[in-house]
Each structure stands twice: as structure tokens, then as C-alpha cells.
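Quick one - inputs below.
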Amino acid sequence: MKNAGQKNTGRLSRRQILSAAGFVGLAALTGCGSGDDGGDSKDLSKKQNGAMKNYRAGQQFKAAKPLSFSLLHNNNPVYPLKSGWLFWKEVTRRTGITLKPVDVPLADYEKKRSVLIGAGDAPFLIPKTYHPSEVAFVSSGAILPVSEYVHLMPNFQDKVRKWKLEPELDSIRQSDGKYYLLPGLHEKAKSGYSLSFRTDILEKHGLTVPTSWDEVYDVLKALKAEYPDKYPWTDRWSTNTPFPCGALFSYLGQAYGVKAGWTYDNLTFDTTARKFVFNATTDAYRQMVEYLRKIVAEKLIDPESFTQQDDQAVQKLLAEKSYVISANPQELVQNYRYNLGKQVKGAKIEMVPVPLGPAGPVVLGGTRLENGVMISSKALKSDTFVAMMQFVDWLWYSDEGQKLCKWGVKGTTYTESGGQYRLEPGISLMGSDPDAAKDLQKDYGFFNGVFTYGGSWDLVSSSFSPDEKEFQDAMAQRKELPIDPAHPLQSVEQEQATLWDTPLKDHAIQNTLKFVLGKRPLSEWDAYVAELKAKNMQQLVDVHNKAYDRFQQANG
Amino acid sequence: MVSVNRPTRGYRVFQGVNGVILTLVVVVTLYPFVNIVARSFSGERQIRAGEVTLWPKGFNLTTYKIVFQDSMFWRNYGNTVLYTVVSTAVAMVLTTCYAYVLSKKHLKGRTALVGIAVFTMFFTGGLIPNYVLVTTLGLKNGVWAIALPNAISVFNLLVMKAFFESLPTDLEEAAQLDGLSTYGILLRIVLPLSKAVVATMVLFYSVSFWNSWFSAFLYMDHTDLMPVTVYLRNLIQGATGGANAGAGTEQLSQVGANIQAVTIVLTALPILCVYPFVQRYFVSGVMLGAVKG
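Output:
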């Protein structure tokens, strides 16, 4: 009796506990089984629900019946997502598709994206993905190898063909020969950054606006002679990046034909030798370092440029402690010119086309691809897969779709005549009309970075300010250097390569700065190369060359 | 024998040095905060020139006005208040019950229950399994995604358990003899005696929930469900200026200079106001377990 009573007061026997645990384990295993993989992934006959039968390039996509797709939305705090945007309504009206956005703050977009994909809970469409971040998801099979399905996307293929983007697409292929990202496509490379000068000061001292780096040096020397206790040039874009003065090194390197600053890569393809070499030890890279060293040594550039916050740099410009600074068209107009206008009477600041260097009038290759869209593998299992691919093709890659995303609805948000686009009165874009009641991005949801990128030169340049137009026109005349050929690594090689890659990159960047700032004499260059060799530089180059040869053999 | 009435010279020197060091610590801790408050009221020119230290210069309320006008800020603030209140309430109920039960030495399986709790202090399932769990339970996009997974902090649990253990058992036995049920004992005898530790725990939990942004960021799919800490984080990490809050172009520069300071002040303000009033509980709480009757 007592025993029976004791059993009932809840103390489970060990056997009971073990068997319960066993059942739970079994249930879990069956629960997370592989599931149905939708049959053969190439057979799309059962996934045509809602798709258009003969969808062609240039045609308006309209789903055969109303569908909805989930989408990861990178919420930019400058224009926070509103469910009432005209953008959503217009997309549904034209295509019959309702987009269901999952809203993620811009600040932690990548992190949330990783969690959602890892948990298997990601939306079907994942835009605003910058190459090579999609590589991390390839091995898990969570994202679709979209290159296998671009035959469903006539506009995409049409643009790739028209603008000869095949080499660019090759550069994002993985070791299996497929690519996993639908990138934003540009007809022409868009240059972003260059040097800007206080042209009123130049005029005052009878100096001409420089067009080459040698002329830049002369102008800086002349300014230094006039203002001996100022640094004529102070720079920015040194924070939140592994390579300080990322913009400066980027366009300075371009003049020497090397990738530096934000565009820095350990490896670069030597077109004469037809193999990959280490970037930071080439002669051209050294010449770039020597040039900047000269500028620093003669006190023509503020040494704090490499460490200060952007705000401090701009403050020095506004306080007239410096007259030269790196710029992009937006900063030039909305920050420098606007603020200078308030503080200094008669101040004029202009951005020049990137000064020319030994490499001549060139722009670095590979800038015709922009961030793009990943597709979740789960989308393949849905019967509306084909319709979804057609929709993506229309919205992001067709001329009409791109125009809609960028400018909105003709007659409501913009007017167009002869290739000139004008916003309707009362609507402003990025401060173009301070008195306007509404903003194209905030109130209507157009010109949203999640949907608007890439396109023909006409479309891309339609939103340029007059300064940007001048700048881009000049830069567009330059020759584009060939893009590095594909050299995708296999996953085993990838791990080893990453272990070598990071220390080499850090060492190269740190020493670039040391040489430039004079903390290390340039006579020690060979010692620096030897140090890199000791960090497995040659092995890294060899791995990539092997991958390059392998890819060449496999894909002609 | 040392006289306790007249402090020795050594003791007075110790007091002096102690006072100086503690004052220094106070100053170092307080300075950044005072600086932020000053910045939030200062003009942009003075901020950028680095002139603002302890006192606002160029006093203006522009950024405050702009932030107050942003409906999303208030929406998120309301969310923070809601999440904090609900989460703290849930956490307090659960922690108190668990701690009280664990403090009873005659509980069967007590070691196992304590072990389970302590185990979670060292090991955790990881980000993705937690996410999958919360999602499959259907808690996403609601206050429960924040309240339930983080409801019991094991550290707080163990502190409360230790406190309940220190209460004399005679009291409860007497109450039991008088016919009070277990719940009655908990609510009418034990809790009134535990004001100190309960207040402390309420404060710990509410500050922790007030400041938390990660759970909300992870489990909420829409901006209007986020707490104000995510709003602030977005400002600091994502935005380059105050344009998101609806500033006009002329005000952009001013707003850009101190919007972070303003948002920090507004977010920390309620906690600041609550602390001085709850402080007396800490003092008496510390003393309570010190002298055994």
C-alpha cells in the first residue's frame, strides 16, 4: 500500500524516464526529416501556377491569378517602410502580385538574414544582398542556384546579352560553376568618388583645376605656399572600414590600375602574365604608395585623415582649415556645398573627374554589378515558382519595372519628356525641393534601395544632379579595365585560404599606412615583401591560380 | 581592546582616502552622462567645435521637437513600456514561485530542479534553435516572444532562493497551524517580508527588459512592433542624419549633431526617475540577511 502511494506522488521510475526520452527523441527525428524535395528540381511542369504562358522581354508581366510572395525588406531609417505606399499598390495593380514584406532594420540586416535563413524561416525573396555574402549560404543549400533558372527570366538575359555582362557574371560563379545571386545590372560602370576642390580659392590664387595627380601635387604645393600653417587637404571615410581613407585609396589606386581602399583585394590578375599575383607587392601598388608618401611628407595632406571621423574632416573643411576633400555627388551637394554656403560667403566647391595617373584614363572593372536578390530554395517547392521568377524578372530587370521602382507612376509622381524625368511639383527627392510637402521615398515608397538598382545608362543617369551628370559623363569616357576572371575555390580550399587571407590583408594594409605616413621608410619595401612571404603569400596565390586553371579547363 | 567610540587615526585616514577614491569614481562615471545631457540641449556649431563639456552651449530644443514629432518614436516607446511591464510581471511571478518552491528543503527532486536551472546558465541552445522554437510555438510578433524565453534569470532565481531560505521556518509553521494554505503563506506571510528582494528583482528585471533590443529585433517582423532601443540603434548604426525623423533641410545639420544624445536621454530618463525611489530597498535588503535572529 505504502509503495503504491509513493509511486503516485509523482516520482517516475528510471525506466519510465528513459522510455519517455526515447519517444521524444524519435519524434524529433521524424519531425525534422528531409521532407519532400519537390521531385526533380529541373522539372517545372508542376510549378506553373499563375505564370504567364509566353512571357517575353519587354512585356508587362501579369500573373494569371492573384498571388503573394514574401520578401525580406531592408528598412532604411531615412525612408521607413509604410504599408500605405503607392509602390505596393501599383505593383499589385500591374502584376497581380502582392508583396508581403518582412521588415528588418538596416542596422542589423545581415544578422537577421543569417538567422532567418539558418532557421529555415526566410522569405522567398531576399534582396539587398551584396556579393560575396551569398557565398556563406551556398553550402547549406538554403539558397537557389539561380543560374539554373535564368531561362525563366527573359529581361535579365536580354540585358546580360546587350550589355555584355557575361564576364561579370562569371566572376560571381561558385566552384560548381553556378551563381547564387541575381545581381543588379548596369549598362555602364558608375563612378562614385573623387576629389573635390574649393574652386573659389583656386581662382583667387590663379590656380587651374587639376586633371592629373601631378597637377594635384602642384596645386597642393601652391596652396601650402599661400597658407603655410594649414594642411590644404584633409580626408575622410576612414572609419568602419579595414582600409582607412577607403575612398581616396580607391580612386588613387584606380589611376595606377590597382585595387586599393574599399576595392582592395589581396589578389589581382596580371593580364600579361595571365595569372593571379599578390596585389600589395606589385610595382604599380608601390608607385601609388610612393606618391601618397610624397604628399604626406611635404605636409600637403592632414595626417589625421587616416584616423579621424567623417564629421571632423567635414568640420575642418567648413572651418576653412582645408580646401580639398574626397567627395561623392551626394555629399558634395547636400553636405559640403550646403554647409559651406551657410558659413563662408562666396565659397564654391567642385568635384573633379578622378585625376589621371600612370594607367591613363581608365576605370576599374567589375563595377557594373550591384547588390542583388537571393532566392530561397524553399521557393522551388512552391507551385507558383515560375510565376515568381517571372515577377522578379519584370520588377527588377525590365525597363518598365525599373522605371516604376525608381520614379513611380507617370502623371502622379513624375513626368517624362524626351528622356528627361521631372518630379511632380510638391514632391521632393533627397532634398531636391526643401519646400515640398511630400517626399518620393518617404511618402510614396519609390526610389527605394531594396528595389531600385541597376539599369540602362539613361535610367541611371536620369536622377543625376547637374554636377553628377558632368562628373559621370567625363568618367564614362574612360576605358574600363578588364575584370578579374573567375577563380572560385572549393569549400576545403576556401577554409585554408581564409586562414591565410586575413593576416595577409591586415599586414598589407597596416604597412601601406606605415609607408605612407613615414613610420616605415620605403627602403624597407623588400623586407615588407619578405614578411608577407612568411605569412603564406605565395601559397595563397598558388591556391587561387590553381582554382583559376581548374575553372578555365572546366568551362572553357 | 579597540574602542568603538573614538575612531583611530588609521581609521580616519582610511575614511579620507576612501572618500577621495569614491568621489573620483563618481565623477568619472557621471561625466559622460552629464556630457550627453548637455549635448542634447546644445547648438550644432558648439558640438562640432567640441566646446560642450558639462553645460549646454547654444541652448535649443530643435532636436527634441523633431523627435517628439516622429510618431514612430512614440510608437516604439509605447512598445518598450508594454514589453517591460508585461515581461517584468511574468518574470517576477515565475521567478518568485520557482525560488520559493526551491527554498523548501523537503521538496522531492529539489537537486534536479536546481540543476536544470543552473545548467541553463552555462549552456544554451544557440541562436537558431531558439529562433525555431519561438517561431514554431507561434510567439513571433507579439509581446510573449520577449517575455517568455527570458522570463527567468537564473542569477536572480538563486538570489531569491537564498533569501527565502534565510526566512525563519517558525513563521510558516505557525501560519500552517493556523490553517493557512500554501498559497496563503506565500502571499500573506512570505511576500510582505520580502519587499526588499522583490523590489530589487523588479528593478533588475525591468532595467534588463527596458534595455533589451536583441529579442525584439529577432522575433519582430515589423518596425512598429520594435522597442525604442531598436530605434536608437538604427539611428546610431544606420542613419547618417536626422532625416528619418522628418527634419527639414535647414534643421538636418542641427539634428544630425545631437539626435543620438537626445534619444539616449529620452530612453534613459524613466529608469533614472525610478532608481532613487527604489534605492532604499537595496540598503535595507543588504542588511536583512546580515544579522541572524
